[in-house]
Amino acid sequence: MSPVRIKDHWREQRIFERRSLFAGAAMALLGLALVGRLYLLQVARHDYYSALSQENRVRTDPIPAARGLILDRNGEVIASNQPTFQLELIPDEVPDLRGSLRRLVKLGLLQADDIPELVRTIKSRRTFDNVPIRLHLSDDEVARFAVRRFEFPGIDITPEEARWYPEGSLAVDAMGYVGTISEKDLAHIDRAAYAGTAVIGKTGVESAFEKQLHGTNGFRQTLVDAQGRPVPKPGVFGKDLEMKAPKPGDDLILSLDLKIQKVAEAALSGREGAVVALDPNNGDVIALVSSPAFDPNLFARGITEKQYAALEGNPDRPLYDRALRGEYSSGSTIKPGLALGALTDGVIDPDKPVFCPGYYHLPGSRHIWHDANHEHHGETNLDLAIARSCDVYFYGVAHEMGIDRISEWLPLLGFGRPTGIDIGGEKPGLVPSRAWKEAHFANPANKVWFPGETVNLGIGQGYFLVTPLQLAHYASILASRGHIWQPRLVTGSRSPDTGKIKWLPPVYEGYLSNISADSWKRVIHGMVGATTYGPPLTGTAWSVMRGSVYTIAGKTGTDQVVNESVTGNLGEENGFSKIKKQYRDNAWFIAFAPAEAPRIAIAVIVEHAGFGSTGAAPVARKVMDAYLLGPDGKLLPAAPRGPYSEPTDLKPKAEPSLPPLPASKPPATQQVVDRAHPDPAAPPSAQ
Amino acid sequence: MIYEEVSSESRTRRTLTGAARVLSALRMDGPLVTALALTAAYGLVVLYSASAENLPMVLRTAMRLVLGTAAMLALARVSPNFLRRTSPWLYAIGVLLLLAVAVFGHTRLGAQRWLNLGPIRFQPSELMKIAVPMMCAWYLHERSLPPRWPNLLILGAIIMVPAALVAKEPDLGTAALIAAAGALVVFLGGLRVRVIVGMVLVGIAAAWFGLRFMHGYQRQRLLTFLNPQSDPLGAGYHIIQSQIAIGSGGVFGKGWMNGSQAQLDFLPERTTDFIFAVIGEEFGLLGLAVLLLLYAFIIGRALYLAVQTPDTFSRLLAGSVALTFFVYVFINAGMVTGLLPVVGVPLPLVSYGGSSVVTVLAGFGILMSLHAHRKLMGS
Fold this sequence. Notes:
The structure holds two protein chains of two kinds. Chain A is an alpha+beta fold. In chain A, strands 2, 3, 4, 5, 10, 18 and 19 form a seven-stranded mixed β-sheet that branches. In chain A, strands 12-11-23-22-21 form a five-stranded antiparallel β-sheet, sandwiched between helices. In chain A, strands 1-8-9 form a three-stranded antiparallel β-sheet. In chain A, a hairpin with a 6-residue loop joins β18 (490-494) and β19 (501-503). A three-stranded antiparallel β-sheet of chain B has the order 1-2-3, with helices on one face. Chain B is globular, with a radius of gyration of 22 Å. In chain B, β2 and β3 (120-122) form a beta hairpin. Chains A and B meet through α1 and α2 of A and α7, α10, α11, α12 and α13 of B.
């Protein structure tokens, strides 16, 4: 064993000194690294960490903007906001959660079945946050809770703004409704702008004008601690907290007249159908009804699954917007339009009578087309053919025009494409053509256009499909003698701050300049005849329109839902009621009035109501009477406008013209001002 | 030599001499004690803010400082020879207590560290922070330096046995500090550089192979085993918030009691392990620089005193006290600033928490005893 005791003290001292020096140097280096790190954090990246520290302590709560109101042309409110009261609970402050909830059930403020779900919701939230446990308390419920409030520590009533439709289902298909923001909605909105907003427009004006109605949300900054609790006395940390007031959404003014809307809805009395009434002078929608309707408040206040299932499962389909999305055969309502085409093309002589034996057959074909109800109109000229709705005459008109001209002509009258109404969501309908048939059918045998299909078009049957809105638009083109206005619901917006109204100019689409004044005169004469010709050559709508103080130009139509082989050949009198409802024909009626200077153009469909004259025309009559007649039963002076109607000088001064028709036929006669029918598109001041 | 200053003429000198006389009678080193006192005072000021004006907490810390000072004064009076002779016994008692903790220990905060001795709850691991370097210094004192291989094996055992027992409690931070205190003695004793380099290389290689051939979940399990107190997410939150606190403090800080990170509870453990970040937030880079300068002075002075001690035991033990103090400061500051992983090491003299203050001051008491008695010992 080596002599351990022998130690070299000087050497050991030197070892220690060297090691101490080395350690000192190492510590100095590590110290420098530390200082470098501090420099990086506190000097180089100071701004970055300051921002993070700011984010930490400041919570930004959005303040939702009040949604804009929706008013009708008279300033009557159809969509407003209503403070509703909700029951909120702060878990931290409730000593006995389940006990409190049970007592709320006893008070009738909660449903016993909802308790487990509620408890789960409450447990999932932060213990110091307000958790809404019951929305939209009624006044009675608020009162019931208020007297017992002392029994419920940590539970309180808080006010909340909710969308409120005071008229319920009135005009719901025009106005639309709001609902809870869904995943789908989130995809096309700026999430940041909607922070704090509970609902979003789902359909109608509420959806199409969402941006204007929504406004701009504000925010309020609160000082919070690490758990997210607001700090009651922010002191030095709360100096730089900001707040921005929300900017409420604009109020929208609709062209609708709620009085007329109510009359139209009442006239339909819940039957499945639609009414669209337009002002032919500017495209304003006076009334827009799809029946049956539903209460939009259900959606605005958070529809339950059960309520939604009930609406969805209703066989009358209240959620289905028939006015814009229902596609039907036009029936005979298309006849005036076809007559205009045939006159413009010069393929018919309006004065030459055609003998109507009650049936028609194509030259060279053995197939026979019957007149509806197998009527025999005898010798019939164009005027009588329109007034009495002679199918045989129009089978011939369609045959003379041919499918190629018809498929070019009908789109000029607004068919086969959306009318461009400002709330969107409409179906385009369908104007068939050779090309369409070629593309649409798979079977080569069906790709060919058959002449018989052209004949069917003469009475608006077959592939041709229209929406009630399109038909009203068409009626308005007829009423204005060729002026095309885009239908619109929103005429202006009112700033909630200044109360100033910004009017939107109506959208003028052009003028059908090819149609001669003589053609207009003849066709409208026929339509007036439909409502005025009494026996023996009775107009189809005479019995309903009889006694009107103003002249009505109208046209009935019947959309055959199924072939007569299903229903059997049953006339109106002898067994209509025996046909199963869903097989009964849809009744159409279009009209405009007063015929010489129209102020209203209307289309009415009543599903499964049989003939247009009896099913739909009475509805149109009631609406027109309500719009045109004063309380004394006399025709109101022109332009009965409310305070919220836009001034007339907004109309475009120069009228753009539509491109002329393809010149395959003799060119149209030049436009002549018809003294008997002054141009209704001219400003009222010119009349 | 102690009394040489008496011959000075100036009145000031005489006054200083009076203070020096008291200090030397107490076996205290003036500059070191001053720096320690300033640091502790600074710590109390910061703690008042960090604890949200919790005066009882500040008073408790002041009481512990008094207790630590008493321990320091008492230990400074003890003769180095006595310290050296009792080292093995102290070590043996410490190991036995650690075993007792492992068997009967009291579990608190998920770790079995505490021994209930009637009214006193006692953490034997704190004792080992001093006993292990003492034992190593004692062992090397008897042998010629630098240590040879057999000596290193025995030293390894002396260090690893208590460190392993503490690590099992589990208290990885303290175990690392105990091991570091012992290893620093061996380093100061002249452990050959090639051995150090070799051990570092072996360690790196082992870690690399270990991690290389482990699946992700095994690696995660190992990390969780090494640091069970804080899951990665939790530790991540700590470190992010402390960096935000320090960084947002900037050069001049947000002002005393104005640190939003600390005052609004974003900074976790702000009175204990993360108090360094409170200083950074409220007093900025300047406040931290003052603290680090105080620490640097304490370490430098301690090392200077260590070099002056006459024998191997004193030198090694005193040097270890100085370097261990640095390790405390560096690990804590490194952890809080995000340089090092999160391990529970308090900031010496500043962090709230009982035993650490007493242990640190006791260590400096021993250091001053070793220095002050240098002329009284025969070498």
